[in-house]
Amino acid sequence: MAETETKQAAKPEPAKAPAEKQTNCPACNKPLKKLKRYYRNGKLYCNKKCWQKAAKAKPKDAAKA
Questions:
Q1: Domain parsing of the chain, residue ranges
Q2: 53 touches 43 (CB < 8 A)
Q3: Could you tell me the pTM of the whole model?
Q4: Which residues contact 20 (CB under 8 A, 6 or more apart)?
């Protein structure tokens, strides 16, 4: 039992790179302010209007590809 514990302790886990912090709105590329953020679908937008703009643009891009 002591052998398995030492084997597990001997294996160093690879260091995970910290996730990059999102600094600009994906729709309009404006800098995001801490007080004014709109979070939808795993991304931060500057407001609801930009989120709707990005949501409408997404299906058009998929149709072109």
A1: 38-65
A2: no
A3: 0.59
A4: none
CB 52 within 8 A of CB 43: no
Residue 10: per-residue pLDDT:
61
Tokens of 27: 């729709």
With residue 8 as reference, give the H or E element that holds it.
helix 2-10
pLDDT of 4 higher than 80 = no
Rg of the chain over Cα atoms, rounded to whole angstroms, equals 21
Helix (H) / strand (E) element for 49: namely helix 48-64
Tokens of 6: 């030492």
Quick one: average pLDDT of 14-29? 85
Nearest to 52, CA basis, from 26, 32, 33: 26
Question: pLDDT-based confidence at 59, cuts 50/70/90?
Answer: confident
